[in-house]
Specification:
The chain contains 22 helices and 14 strands. Strand 9 and strand 10 form a beta hairpin. With 587 residues, it is an alpha/beta fold. The chain has three domains: 84 residues, Arginyl tRNA synthetase N-terminal domain (Gyrase A, domain 2); 278 residues, HUPs (Rossmann fold), CATH 3.40.50; 178 residues, Isoleucyl-tRNA Synthetase, Domain 1. About 1% of the residues have low confidence. The strands form four sheets. It has a five-stranded parallel β-sheet, sandwiched between helices. Strands 1-2-4-3 form a four-stranded antiparallel β-sheet.
């Protein structure tokens, strides 16, 4: 427990004992600079209940605290605020505890499944997928650090009309091109044919509209879309040639995805395929019809009436027997809970799908699955560049591989300009450029609250000053250099020494690590970790700039400051790990 929580707990006991109040507890806050004391207790919530003046209450609680706690050195009351000065030794003892306790994770004995990425096999991963992957992977790390068992998963959207579009374009004009003959990653090659299909489709629509056909009618009867629909029906019936083409092109895409995931530094414990789970969804629909939960129209289509839930009627199966997205999502969810002992399932999907997941969860509940209440949609805002929103069908998507390469090159250029890597070997330099570039991308993405739409600026993200990944990585490397020069080795600190406000503030910040992880876990927000580690680095820098270390003659004070530095580096590294970011040992 950190110092603030310890004091908070003691105040709670005093208020309950002295005033017989348990539902109102004064809040302990970090003291603002310029005020006497280390923490401030906000008395005002008790004033109304007890009908006493804030100053009188502050004096009473302050006196009780000083009498009943060994931590309080002195206190004062200013305009209803109780300011507490904590004994130096209490900070030191708390710091020693933090060092011992940092790797102690209290297990929750619950398993959470986190789904992220889940791309389509008709195009490469893009900027939006990057935010998705980074969020899901980081949330999984944070949940683990908070004591949960975690299963990281993705569902590959490997079937459907969109997949058939790429297949049809390659079949018609591919000339047997392969990733090997074109020297292209497989996902990029297939993505090119998806774009090619769209060009042909739009041309057909334009021609039909020019001949007097209504645009909506033209969209439905264009030759290319009819051919794609026919291919989908063939696929669902198990046509051998269609299936062979599908397996070959999907294989190309999976190999391409694997390279992108590797460079991005994300992985999965399980992978599912919609080509398997959509059939389970169809079975569920038949069960729902038998139970009377779903209904069928004259054209054979199957629907769910959600008007009693404040929604509308939702199509689950088309009249021709083909499934829709939600059909396969139903089957996937059921399979996950059937095959895994999980207590919660988190879907990391953009906020454009908010309605889809609201409908999905309500249908599963209607079908009688009690675990439907444990489904959660981690909804996040879209990512935009200064040029505007991405449109994948038009081929203007911001490719994930291209963006990562740009981040690497930008990191290399900036580091060379600043001379930060001059002392490293060429191999070390290349490794550092990669870690800094990808780290900058991850930090910039994750420091923003997931729910917010964000504007990503690659150049702005790679800055060795300010709230950026390189700034955090540089602080870690600088501490490693300090410890190396001092020939540091860990030693538990038990001597009584005088510590200053910079040391106290740093200890208090270090003590907030587990609380930050718990809040980030509960809110599924890596942004809390990112902004915590930024504050930690700022506090460490203030401590470092105002406290000499290696030149100190007092060996006890020197050792204590080295311990503070080492633990700060440890927490920085842990935070970066939670964000999926690598540390750089030397800069």
């Amino acid at each position: 427990m950190n110092i603030k929580d310890t004091i908070q707990q003691k105040i709670k006991e005093i208020v309950a004992s002295n005033y017989q109040i348990t539902d109102v507890v004064p809040e302990v806050q970090d003291n603002k600079s310029g005020f006497d004391g280390d923490f401030t207790v906000v008395i005002f919530p008790l004033v109304k209940a007890l009908k006493k003046s804030p100053d009188d209450l502050g004096m009473e609680i302050g006196t009780a605290l000083q009498t009943q706690s060994d931590a309080i050195e002195s206190f004062n009351v200013v305009k209803g605020f109780l300011n507490l000065k904590i004994k130096d030794q209490f900070f030191i003892d708390n710091f020693n505890f933090l060092q011992k306790d940092i790797d102690n994770v209290e297990k929750k004995n619950q398993t959470v499944m986190v789904e992220y990425s889940s791309p389509n096999t008709n195009k490469p991963l893009h900027l939006g997928h990057i935010r998705n992957n980074l969020l899901g992977f980081s949330v999984a790390n944070i949940l683990k650090e908070d004591g949960y068992d975690v299963i990281k998963t993705q569902i590959i959207n490997d079937r459907g009309i969109h997949i058939c579009k790429s297949m049809l374009a390659w079949q018609n004009s591919g000339k047997n091109e392969t990733p090997e003959t074109t020297q292209l990653k497989g996902d990029k090659l297939v993505g090119n044919y998806y774009v090619e299909f769209d060009k042909i489709y739009k041309k057909e629509i334009t021609e039909q509209v020019a001949n007097g056909i209504d645009e909506e009618v033209a969209k439905k009867q264009a030759p290319s879309i009819k051919s794609a629909q026919e291919m989908l029906l063939k696929w669902e019936k198990g046509d051998e040639k269609t299936r062979q083409l599908w397996e070959m092109m999907n294989g190309w895409v999976y190999a391409g995805f694997a390279q992108t995931y590797s460079r991005l530094g994300v992985d999965f414990d399980q992978v599912q395929y919609e080509s398997n789970t959509y059939l389970l969804g169809k079975d569920l629909i038949q069960q729902g019809l038998l139970k009377g939960v779903l209904y069928q129209k004259e054209d054979g289509s199957v629907w769910c009436d959600l008007t009693d839930e404040g929604l509308d009627h939702k199509l689950l199966l088309r009249g021709d027997g083909t499934s829709v997205y939600i059909t396969q999502d139903l089957g996937t969810a059921v399979q996950r809970f059937k095959e895994n002992d999980i207590q919660k399932l988190i879907y990391t999907v953009g906020n454009e799908q908010d309605y889809h997941f609201e409908v999905l969860f309500k249908i599963l509940k209607k079908l009688g699955f009690a675990w439907a209440d444990q489904l959660y949609h981690l909804s996040y805002g879209m990512v935009e560049l200064p040029e505007g929103k991405m449109k994948s069908r038009e081929g203007t998507v911001v490719d994930a591989d291209d963006l990562m390469q740009e981040m690497y090159l930008t990191a290399k250029e900036k580091a060379e300009e600043m001379g930060k890597m001059d002392q490293l070997s060429e191999e070390e330099k290349e490794s550092s450029y990669e870690k800094i570039g990808i780290g900058a991308l991850k930090y910039f993405m994750l420091k923003v609250d997931p729910k917010k739409k964000m504007l990503f600026n690659p150049a702005e993200s790679i800055d060795f000053n300010g709230n950026t990944g390189p700034f955090i990585q540089y602080a870690y490397a600088r501490i490693q250099s300090l410890l190396s020069r001092a020939n540091y080795s860990h030693k538990e600190f038990s001597k009584e020494i005088k510590i200053n406000e910079f040391e106290k503030e740093l200890i208090a910040t270090l003590a907030n690590y587990k609380e930050t992880v718990a809040r980030a876990s509960e809110g599924l927000s890596p942004a809390l970790v990112a902004n915590y580690v930024y504050d930690l680095v700022k506090n460490y820098n203030s401590f470092y700039q105002n406290n000499p270390i290696n030149i100190l003659e007092d060996q006890e004070v020197k050792q204590f400051r080295l311990e503070l530095s080492a633990h700060s580096a440890n927490i920085i590294k842990k935070c970066l790990m939670l964000l999926g970011i690598s540390t750089v040992e030397r800069m």
